UniProtKB/TrEMBL annotation:
Consists of a catalytic RNA component and at least 4-5 protein subunits. Its main location: cytoplasm. GO terms for molecular function: ribonuclease P activity; RNA binding. The gene is rnp1. Keywords: Cytoplasm, Endonuclease, Hydrolase, Nuclease, tRNA processing. This is Ribonuclease P protein component 1. Its EC number is 3.1.26.5. Transmembrane segments: none annotated. Signal peptide: none annotated. One of its GO terms (biological process) is tRNA 5'-leader removal.
Length: 97
């Protein structure tokens, strides 16, 4: 499902899956986002916390039961800065379409 506003949402506490990555070991990794830094998502996978870089990764996140695909390179910023960087994110999304 495509919804550009999803890039502005809080990811912590939502279920996520890595659907592509430059690191093949991360593909298929899934679980709940337990923390987020500027460059990584920390996912609780089978009781272990896995650190996944946002760069060179694509994610599928479920929010309110609906799946959304996220381009990791567009969320390389502190989570609290995403709403401030809304114009920058949307500009990049338009270029990718």
């Amino acid at each position: 499902m495509i919804n550009n506003d999803i890039y502005l949402q809080e990811f912590i506490g939502n279920y996520i899956e890595v659907i592509s990555s430059s690191n093949n070991n991360n593909i298929g990794l899934h679980g709940y986002v337990v923390d987020e830094t500027k460059n990584t998502l920390i996912i609780d996978h089978s009781g272990k916390q896995k650190v996944v870089p946002k760069a060179y990764s694509k994610f599928r996140i479920w929010i309110s039961g609906n799946p959304y695909d996220l381009e990791g390179s567009l969320i390389i910023m502190k989570p609290e800065d995403r709403t401030k960087e809304k114009k920058k994110i949307f500009k990049k999304l338009r270029r990718n379409d």
